[in-house]
Design a protein that fits this description.
two-stranded antiparallel sheet, elongated, Ubiquitin-like (UB roll), zinc ion binding, 5 helices, alpha+beta, zinc, 23% strand, single chain, seven-stranded mixed sheet, 2 domains, 35% helix
């Protein structure tokens, strides 16, 4: 059972540098995939988080633009700025993206970084980062404040993603706020829904056509049997 919690928990007391060092050593001792955390001289630290993408609605991306290369990323080339044409498509459900971030990286920056990697040009406010936890047979989702630090939560929980994982979802506030979408976005949504509807109709037609053929074959064989 999936349960979404919106109540914020009380903030724990900030850790001292010595406590952070001890927790990082304990964390790294449990890591099995070489994705270690590293403590810097100024008390900040870096590490990796994995974010599951669980988006139900299509996203808007530049039309006809190739994926961003390492060269583009190093040069900070924004390919989305190279065309005004837009199209919409569904990101793979439950895709996982690994990010290397700092202890000072906020939830807001993680969301913006994910959208940039996938060249999504939608408003970041349409998305929210959740932490996913399992307790008493339930899957609990808690929406994270934009000012929260995901790597700090990862450090406290340890590297086991069954204990804590991060999920990018739509920023649901009840009903869908269609006014937040542009006319081209809404038109793209209609085109996608129309295509999905036609595909679904064809699937149903194929299903019952096969059923009809089997029924005719069964009747034909039954007529040929004595008695």
């Amino acid at each position: 059972q999936n349960v979404t919690q919106t109540v914020e928990e009380e903030k724990p007391e900030p850790l001292t540098i010595q406590e952070i060092k001890q927790k990082i050593e304990k964390y790294n001792a449990k890591v099995t995939n070489c994705l270690l955390m590293k403590l810097n001289d100024d008390g900040t630290y870096t590490g990796f988080i994995k974010v599951h993408l669980k988006l139900c609605r299509p996203v808007t991306v530049p039309a006809g633009i190739r994926p961003q290369s390492i060269y583009d990323a190093l040069k900070e080339v924004n390919l989305a700025d190279m065309t005004d044409k837009r199209t919409s498509f569904y990101l793979p459900l439950d895709a996982i993206k690994q990010l290397h971030i700092s202890s000072t990286t906020t939830v807001s920056e993680v969301i913006q970084g994910l959208l940039k990697k996938f060249m999504v040009v939608d408003n970041p406010q349409k998305f929210a980062l959740f932490k996913e936890m399992r307790k008493d047979g339930q899957v609990l989702f808690q929406k994270l404040p934009l000012t929260e630090y995901p790597l700090y939560l990862r450090l406290l929980a340890g590297p086991d993603t069954d204990v804590l994982s991060f999920v990018l979802k739509e920023n649901e506030t009840g009903e869908v706020e269609w006014d937040a979408f542009s006319i081209p976005e809404l038109q793209n949504f209609l085109m996608i829904l129309d295509k999905e509807e036609k595909d679904k109709i064809q699937q149903v037609q194929r299903k019952y056509e096969k059923f009809k053929q089997k029924l005719h074959q069964t009747l034909k064989e039954a007529r040929g049997k004595p008695g």
